[in-house]
Amino acid sequence: MNKPIMIALDFPSVSQVNQFLNQFEDPSQLTVKIGMELFYQAGPEVVKQIKQRGCKIFLDLKLFDIPHTVEKAMEQLGALGVDYTTVHTLGGQAMMEAAKRGLKAGAEKAGLPEPHLLGVTELTSISQTVLKNEQNCKLPMNKQVVALAKLAQKSGCDGVITSALELKDLTSALGTDFEYVVPGIRMQQDAAGDQSRVATPATAKADGAFAIVVGRPITQSQNPIAAYERYIKDWNLK
Fold this sequence. Notes:
Layout: E1 5-8, H1 14-21, E2 31-34, H2 36-42, H3 44-52, E3 56-63, H4 67-78, E4 84-88, H5 93-110, E5 116-120, H6 128-133, H7 141-154, E6 159-161, H8 167-174, E7 179-182, H9 201-206, E8 211-214, H10 216-219, H11 224-235
Parallel strand pairs: 1-2, 1-8, 2-3, 3-4, 4-5, 5-6, 6-7, 7-8
Helix pairs in contact: 4-5, 7-8
């Protein structure tokens, strides 16, 4: 897969998703992220509708449960035809291995390619203070993320979700063949919102990102096409 910019479709309804996608001349060139808000409102049907446009789909539901439950849930997601999906690395090795089995089984039953499984390390809204005081983790953020990513790689995940600030440590510890998908991407002139650990597209790419996720700076822009092209240009800088 080419290194994509994933547009987060954080809309409350399918009609708003369609209004947004209709602005693009060729939506089949897009990779989009469907998160909890949209999926819980519209269900699997929204995945099918967006697939009909030819988009690649990152279904980001961050499964986190006992291994059997996650495996059976992933069988359903594997049959939907998505390209990427997520589990929480804090669920442990057995859970992530079960997720991988479920995805493979679901995709095989449906005659579809197996989606890439991405492990969520620490959310980009989590600061070092929260990590220490609320999660009671004594490790510094970069070491915590590397430890979780190593577990994800060992468990068969294709990559991890990580902030750009940990990319150099990750590529050093795990190599460059692993897929590092980076949310919390903002151009310098854009508001950070509720993200605590952010970076520009060019910085993330230079540090080893496989893909980046951008939501509100594009979807809430007065000119989404121009905003998307601005991010594409920065992402494609050498």
